[in-house]
Amino acid sequence: MKKIIACCGINCSECPAYLATQKDDKEEIKKIAKNWSNESMSFKPEEMYCDGCNVEGRHFSWCEKCDIRICCREKQFENCAYCKDYICDILKNSLEKDPSAKKNLEEIRKNL
Ligand code: SF4
Ligand code: SF4
Question: 61 vs 2, 36, 66, 87, 88, CA distance in Å?
């Protein structure tokens, strides 16, 4: 399976929403919607289907609206590793919360 690295560096290929979508596992999708909901935001199962951040197709509603994704797609980059403004302020906040995403982007940048 091709590894899909999101604009922000998350490995979409290992994301539960992506995996459940590819298997069309409706029960798992329902569970993920419940698990990812909290007091401040609530997701319906139909919002969870996702084919990966930078891939044409379905996107989890939260990732669809992500500022990093919107910026990166407007600039037509596969992900933020290709951007001259790497690491910008919005990306910085996100990478601080997810060191594995930073590692993925750094790996791509090593080979540019
Ligand atoms: S874009 Fe989709 S597959 Fe990637 S992290 Fe977000 S929900 Fe998961
Ligand atoms: S400015 Fe560059 S690094 Fe920042 S979100 Fe946009 S594409 Fe990514």
Answer: 23, 12, 9, 24, 23
Q: 8 exposed, middle or buried (CB, 10 Å; 0-12, 13-18, 19+)?
A: buried
Cis peptide before 90 (omega within 30 of 0): no
Tokens for 45, please give them: 């199962």
Indicate the top mutation candidate among 66, 77, 91 to test ligand 2's pocket, ranked by most ligand atoms within 8 A of CB.
91
pLDDT in tens, the chain (112 residues): 679 999 999 999 999 999 999 999 999 999 999 999 999 999 999 999 999 999 999 999 999 999 999 999 999 999 999 999 999 999 999 999 999 999 999 999 999 9
Atom of ligand 2 nearest to the CA of 84: 2
Q: What is the pTM of this model?
A: 0.94
